[in-house]
């Protein structure tokens, strides 16, 4: 395994991918430290999957330079395959093969000896709680079970770097929490993980985070630093008429976003100077409403970052 103190696990400069007139990834600069969980946060179609496929060497960039684990990509993509794992967004194993047969098949693709295959499968059955499912067809597994099988297949070769493309999109909250516990175990063991997600709670778990919008990097850093450096003020509006109050703020100058959460409104404004204007406008529909400054959360950061790039609405994959 490479020296973790040396170069970043991933370094990309000016990474760009065009599909005809559509710019799916737009001059992206990335530096992913080794041994960390690094998150891609963005809505569906913002370029997360396209970026991951280029970093893996599965898709040629239109422009830009990529180094992954000190290898030049795509020129050295074949050498990279032995050192990475990739868990795709949709379940990509064979549904008509058993759990054991799927893992044996992947192990043979990596060229593991029979003895090493047996040893590695025993380890994975235990780690990912697959012992009782070993002879069950993959197509009959639940969402959480398929997820554990897919992750076991992705780490079968002990990868230095693991790519996970929205890996929890089809599982329940408990399975998501269990899954993240496993990911942190891998990071503690020295594996670098790049995880794409559109869930704010998952983004909060990452050591570092890149927020993508329309294929462009809008913000990057630790979740704590991103919240600390966000420009804008978050307000919590408590009112008996949240829908009417929200409509009253629709055209209010200085209001960036307004969302109802239960019986309250969460409002993101440009600065504290907007606080008095928001309070006055809200009280026109509810004289007893309260408006108070509240702590910034990651959703506020996401809204502030993505609103900085208006007028880009084309879908990306």
UniProtKB/TrEMBL annotation:
Record-annotated ABC transporter domain positions: 10-239
Source organism of this protein record: Alloalcanivorax profundimaris
Keywords, sorted A to Z: ATP-binding, Nucleotide-binding
Annotated InterPro entries: AAA+_ATPase, ABC_transporter-like_ATP-bd, ABC_transporter-like_CS, P-loop_NTPase
One Pfam family matching this protein: ABC_tran
PROSITE patterns from the UniProt entry: ABC_TRANSPORTER_1, ABC_TRANSPORTER_2
Keyword Nucleotide-binding: yes
Name recorded for this polypeptide: Multidrug ABC transporter ATPase
Keyword Membrane: no
């Amino acid at each position: 395994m490479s020296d973790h103190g040396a170069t970043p696990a991933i370094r990309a400069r000016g990474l760009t991918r065009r599909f005809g007139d559509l710019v799916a990834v737009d001059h992206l600069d990335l530096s992913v430290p080794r041994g960390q969980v690094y998150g891609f946060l963005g809505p569906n179609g913002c370029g997360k999957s396209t970026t991951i496929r280029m970093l893996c060497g599965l898709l040629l960039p239109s422009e830009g330079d990529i180094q992954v684990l000190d290898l030049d990509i795509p020129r050295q993509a074949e050498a990279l395959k032995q050192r990475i794992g990739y868990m795709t967004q949709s379940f990509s194993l064979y549904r008509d093969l058993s759990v054991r047969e799927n893992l044996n098949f992947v192990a043979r693709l990596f060229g593991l000896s029979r003895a090493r295959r047996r040893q590695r499968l025993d380890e994975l059955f235990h780690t990912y709680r697959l012992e009782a499912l070993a002879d069950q067809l993959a197509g009959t597994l639940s969402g959480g079970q398929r997820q554990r099988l897919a992750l076991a297949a992705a780490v079968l070769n002990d990868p230095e770097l693991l790519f996970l493309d929205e890996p929890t999109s089809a599982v329940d909250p408990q399975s998501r929490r269990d899954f993240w516990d496993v990911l942190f175990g891998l990071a503690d063991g020295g594996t670098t993980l790049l995880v794409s997600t559109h869930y704010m709670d998952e983004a909060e778990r990452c050591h570092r985070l890149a927020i993508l919008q329309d294929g462009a990097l809008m913000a990057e850093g630790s979740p704590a630093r991103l919240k600390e450096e966000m420009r804008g003020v978050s307000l919590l509006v408590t009112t008996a008429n949240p829908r009417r109050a929200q409509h009253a703020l629709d055209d209010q100058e200085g209001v960036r976003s307004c969302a109802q959460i239960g019986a309250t409104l969460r409002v993101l404004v440009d600065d504290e100077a907007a606080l008095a204007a928001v309070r006055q406008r809200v009280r026109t529909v509810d004289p007893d409403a309260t408006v108070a400054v509240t702590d910034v959360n990651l959703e506020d950061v996401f809204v502030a970052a993505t609103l900085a790039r208006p007028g880009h609405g084309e879908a990306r994959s």
